[in-house]
Amino acid sequence: MKLLNRLLVAAAGALALAAPGLAAEKAKEPEAHTWSWEGPFGQYDQAELQRGFQVYQQVCASCHALEYMSFRNLGEEGGPFFDPEYPNPNDNPVVRAIAADYMIVDGPDEFGEMFEREGRPADRFPSPFPNENAAAAANGGAVPPNLSLIVKARTGGAEYIRSLMLGYDYPVPEDVTVRPGQYYNPYFPGGVLAMPPQLMEGLVEYADGTEATPEQMAHDVTAFLAWAAEPHMEARKSLGFMVMIYLLIVCVLVWLAYRQVWSRVHH
Ligand code: HEC
């Protein structure tokens, strides 16, 4: 009897292991999309980043952390709230106001107690859950991943994230089982995930008056996450451009020198 039990458990285990593998093959190709930062001269669009931050803050932040990111990053050059008047983001009033909206656990104080205080620009974004177990318990066993590097961490990058956010309206194929607390989304490897559909029409009220359609919010929040994953892209591109110009000038100089040096040699 014991042996039979063991065999059954082993078979169930093998099935569980095989199932995501089988289904993973069917993940739908992310939809192609145009982004402002593509190409050698592409830059982030600041209005887009601001709207994307608003979506992150009002919708995604209740489940997803933005580890490694500090409030002050929002006000750095290329970031959503960069203002040339405040080259030091710690002085940027928008950044200070955003930080002050958060309560940060600090300490220990002189009595050894932890205490809460208003956020400051140098603080990191606090995580929505105290630890992974709490995050899993609140989300049907799946931990919502940290979003600060997600655009770099997933094959398909920004296109995948956007398609995933908009990909909940597909009929569930017959061979896919969706258990309670799970949702079907053909873009997700395996097709079934624990994140409920997020982007409903008019979910946020954009500060700049843009209409908050699901497509608009998916585009904006993905742009924000792309910036979060590579905040120094603009600096990198402009450095690359300067290096190219420098090399071009050096090339011309070397060529002129070459002509000069060989001009007196008769062939
Ligand atoms: C109610 C909680 C909740 C909210 C709100 C939420 N998510 Fe999620 N999200 C999850 C969970 C749970 C997972 C893990 C799903 C899994 O692995 O089954 C997840 C996974 C993800 C993933 C990773 C998918 C992958 O390939 O592994 C991305 C990207 C994501 N969420 C983006 C967002 C964005 C953007 C928002 C805001 C618009 C958002 N989420 C809001 C719970 C949430």
TrEMBL record:
The keyword Transmembrane belongs to this UniProt entry's keyword annotation: yes
SUPFAM superfamilies: Cytochrome c
Residue ranges annotated for the Cytochrome c domain, each copy included: 47-211
Main localization category: membrane
Protein name, entry field: Cytochrome c1
GO molecular function, one term: heme binding
Cofactor(s) essential for the protein: heme c
UniProt keyword annotation of Transmembrane helix present: yes
Gene Ontology CC annotation, any one: membrane
A UniProt-annotated Pfam family: Cytochrom_C1
Transmembrane segments: 239-258
Signal peptide range: 1-23
Superkingdom assignment: Bacteria
InterPro entries: Cyt_c-like_dom (IPR009056), Cyt_c-like_dom_sf (IPR036909), Cyt_c1 (IPR002326)
Organism in which the protein naturally occurs: Marinicauda algicola
